[in-house]
Amino acid sequence: MATVGIKIHKHHKKADGTYNVKIRVAHKGEKKYLDTPHFVVDKQLTAKCVLKDATLKQILNKTLDDYRVTISTLGPKLEFFNAETLRNHLRDKDEPMDFFKFCQNHIEELEKEKRSGSAGTLKTVLFSLKDYFNQNALSPLEINEWMLSSYEKYLRGKREIKRMNQGELRKRIVKGMTDGAVHNHFRDLRILFKAAMKHFNKPQIGQIRIPYCPFDNYKIVDTPETRKRNLDIERIKLIRDCNVEPGSRAEMARDLFMLSFYLCGTNAVDLYYLTSDNIKKGRIEYNRRKTKRRKDKAFISIKLVKEAKPLLEKYLGKLHTRYCRSHALDRAIKEGMDVVNKNAGLSGITYYWARHSFGNLARNKCRMSKDDVALALNHMDHGNKVTDIYIEKDWSIVDEVQANVVELLVDRNEPKTKRLINPIEQRRTMRLVSA
Q: Cα separations (Å) of 406 from 61, 126, 369, 402, 433?
């Protein structure tokens, strides 16, 4: 049986000598507490810290009676609750739904889980919605098919946005979104909306505050075919040998692009968080942050090849102090790559091309198998999940892929220290030697 009552914790006395009056919710042997807007001092309490102020008790008893009625109306559904969920139900039952407030709380939870990438894209959606509605609160019921259609037109047009920058509110004009940007934006808005439905709706007790999802009837524009971001080896050499100003963002962008290429397409966010603790016995070992929610935590072990070593030593542990967040590093790399493109006589190449190019060259130039390339890129093999339970990952396969791709950068007119490694031939030779 669930009960509610007034509770004041003696050890919660504040610096100004007051105590917050709380409501105790007890259910299934557990107790949880609700804060109230009421504060009391010692003279309003008994020696056992029990409230004796008659006026305040009368006010609180009305709240307790309301909670008891709510609990009674639940009937058999009360069994679906524990003390915490019942406390939350009593607290939120009369609170109006605010989609903006929910989104902000949801984003903060993602940031606590160190999912800064997901939090960043959802934060962009939240800011844009606030621009569109120009109000401080929004009911999720205002998001429907007609609103989505109007919102899409708004996003595709040139518009003014206001953002806080270094403590100042600044305005700027942004151009309309492309099909790809609209697709991604609406995909993230749908993620937020469905999370809100899960938060506000309690079907087990028949409480459906958001009755339907407008995205079920609204067709999000298809994303255009992804542009191939593959560089041939000659253009990668142009980036490697590009002359830039020492200490500039362009130098950092060039170096990190090549470091990513040498390290099997390592993402910038992973380079940002790398420390000396990730270097073990000549290998770089880390959990890829973009997909670390996988069961294997997206762990990968990559050999620290000689080409990558001076670059890693140059930036290891320093990106963290130079940039407060990984997103700031991303922006700096983007600006730096613009200069690299100009100086190298190239166009439109971004940092992420290093990862795409590594995979493409490994498969099409070095003739490595798709499975081996996927392992080197730390991709999840959705088609062989059961098989993966039996097979232990062999990082020497990644070493073979890496060695073959890095070998391509050796100039043709220079003597090669070793010929291109054929993994099948190498394994055959190893078997002969061991025999």
A: 74, 42, 17, 6, 26
